[in-house]
Specification:
It is a single chain. Helix 3 (53-71) runs parallel beside helix 9 (270-286) and helix 10 runs parallel beside helix 12 (364-377). It contains 12 helices and 13 strands. The longest helix is centred in the last third of the chain and has 21 residues, at 288-308. The protein has 2 domains: 7-30 and 287-377, Aspartate Aminotransferase, domain 1, CATH 3.90.1150; 35-283, Aspartate Aminotransferase, domain 2 (3-Layer(aba) Sandwich). The chain is 37% helix and 14% strand. Strand 5 (149-155), helix 7 and strand 6 (180-184) form a beta-alpha-beta unit.
C-alpha cells in the first residue's frame, strides 16, 4: 500500500497493467481510461459535426494555460511541438551561435538532444562533452567551460540509468556566465516536480508520451520570453504577430509573435492536446510530489530486493541523485529480456542492462514479482554487486 495515494484506484484506470506487469513507463505509458475518453470525445465530435474547430482551438488554449501553470510559467511561454527532438532542434537553431562558439553537453546523454547541436557544426559551432559522473551539477561542469562556451544543453533525468542532474545549480551557473541553458525534461515531466523559473532555462523541451500519459506525437517547448533575440529557423503564418486577413504573404509583415507561438507552425495535434488536458487532470489530482515519492519508495523496495540477490544497480542509489522512477539492473539484456517477456513483465533493454521504469500505477507487488522472476532463474556472478 502506498503512503501517498490509492494505487489500486489508479491501477483501475490503466487496463493494461491488469494484464501484464508493466515496468516500462520510461519508454511510454499505457493508455489510461480518462485519456482515451478525451480522444474519443474529439473523434466523436469530428464524426458527428465534421469538427467544431473553434471549440477545439479554445481547448488548445485552455490546455496551454494549464500546462503553463503546471510548469510554473505563463501561457505565452508555451509552444506545442511534435516531440522532444523537434523541441531541441527548434532551441538549437534559435540560439544566435556563430562559427567558433561552443556548446557544452553531457557525454552519453540522450542522442537526439546531442544531434540537434551537433548539426550546428555546419555553422562552425563546436560541441564539447563533459563526462557523465554520478553527480552532475554546477561544480562538476564549471571546469569544462571555456572562453567560447555559449550554451549548456542537457537532460534533467537520463533515460538510460536514471541520473538526476542538478539543473537548478547549472541554471544559476549559466546565469552567472551569461550562457544559454537548454533542458530536456522528457524523462522527468509528470513524475518529478518541475519549476521552470527555478531552472532559469532559456528553453525547456519535452514530449508527452511518458510521464504525461499521452500517446506519441505531441511535444512542448518552454521559452524564456525575456530572450526576445531568439527567433525561429522557419516561419509560417502561425508564427506571426498578425496573420494577414486575406492570407496573402507580404515581405513587410514578418513581425514575429511576442509569445512562444513564434516557434509553432500551426495545425496542432488536436487529439493529443485533448488527451493532455485529461492527463493533467489525473496528475494534478494525485500531485506530482506524491507520484515522485511513491516511485522513490518503489525504487527503495527494488534496490533492497536486488541487494538481497547480490545484483548490481547501474547508476546512482542515493535518492537525491537518482530519478524516482528509472532503474537499470546489471543483467545482460540479450540474456534476460526474453525471460521477462515470457513471464509477462514489460521492461526495456538499455546500454548496461535491463531498465525498469515505474509509473503512477505501479505497486510494491509489481516489484516483488520482478524480483521473484529474477530469483527463480538465478544470476551469474558477473551480474552481482561489486
Amino acid at each position: 500500500m502506498s503512503r501517498h495515494y490509492d494505487v489500486d484506484a489508479v491501477r483501475r484506470e490503466f487496463p493494461a497493467v491488469e494484464r501484464i506487469t508493466y515496468l516500462d513507463s520510461g519508454f511510454q505509458t499505457p493508455l489510461a481510461r480518462p485519456v482515451k475518453a478525451a480522444i474519443d470525445l474529439f473523434l466523436r465530435e469530428g464524426l458527428e459535426t465534421a469538427g467544431p474547430k473553434s471549440v477545439w482551438l479554445d481547448r488548445v488554449e485552455q490546455t496551454r494555460a494549464r500546462l503553463a501553470r503546471f510548469l510554473g510559467v505563463t501561457a505565452d511561454e508555451i509552444a506545442f511541438t511534435k516531440n522532444t527532438s523537434e523541441s531541441m532542434n527548434i532551441a538549437a537553431n534559435a540560439l544566435p551561435l556563430r562559427a567558433g562558439d561552443r556548446v557544452l553537453m553531457i557525454h552519453g546523454d540522450h542522442p537526439n538532444n546531442a544531434y540537434a547541436f551537433l548539426n550546428l557544426r555546419r555553422k562552425g559551432v563546436t560541441v564539447d562533452f563533459a563526462p557523465m559522473t554520478e553527480v552532475v551539477n554546477a561544480d562538476s561542469l564549471r571546469p569544462h567551460l571555456g572562453e567560447k562556451t555559449r550554451a549548456i544543453s542537457m537532460s534533467q533525468v537520463t533515460f538510460h540509468a536514471g541520473h538526476r542532474f542538478d539543473v537548478e545549480s547549472i541554471g544559476a551557473l549559466c546565469a552567472e556566465k551569461g550562457l544559454y541553458f537548454i533542458v530536456d525534461v522528457m524523462q522527468a515531466i509528470g513524475v518529478v516536480p518541475i519549476d521552470a523559473r527555478a531552472m532559469r532555462a532559456t528553453f525547456i523541451g519535452s514530449g508527452s508520451h511518458k510521464g504525461l500519459l499521452v500517446p506519441q506525437g505531441l511535444g512542448l517547448l518552454v521559452w524564456d520570453k525575456s530572450r526576445t533575440e531568439l527567433e525561429p529557423a522557419y516561419l509560417a503564418a502561425a508564427s506571426l504577430a498578425e496573420v494577414p486577413a486575406d492570407l496573402i504573404a507580404r515581405p513587410d509583415g514578418l513581425e514575429l509573435a511576442a509569445s512562444a507561438r513564434r516557434f509553432e507552425l500551426g495545425n496542432f495535434n488536436l487529439p493529443a492536446i485533448h488527451a493532455l488536458g485529461a492527463s493533467l487532470d489525473m496528475i494534478e489530482a494525485l500531485g506530482v510530489q506524491n507520484i515522485q515519492d511513491h516511485c522513490l519508495d518503489l525504487g527503495d523496495h527494488l534496490i533492497a530486493g536486488l541487494d538481497a540477490l547480490d545484483v548490481r544497480l547501474v547508476g546512482p542509489r542515493e535518492r537525491r541523485h537518482r530519478a524516482p522512477h528509472i532503474y537499470v539492473i546489471a543483467l545482460p539484456a540479450a540474456e534476460w529480456l526474453g525471460h521477462f517477456e515470457q513471464n509477462g513483465i514489460r521492461v526495456s533493454p538499455e546500454r548496461d542492462g535491463i531498465r525498469v521504469s515505474f509509473g503512477m500505477f505501479n505497486s510494491f507487488a509489481d516489484v516483488d514479482r520482478l524480483i521473484d522472476v529474477i530469483k527463480r532463474r538465478g544470476v551469474k556472478p558477473s551480474s552481482r554487486a561489486a
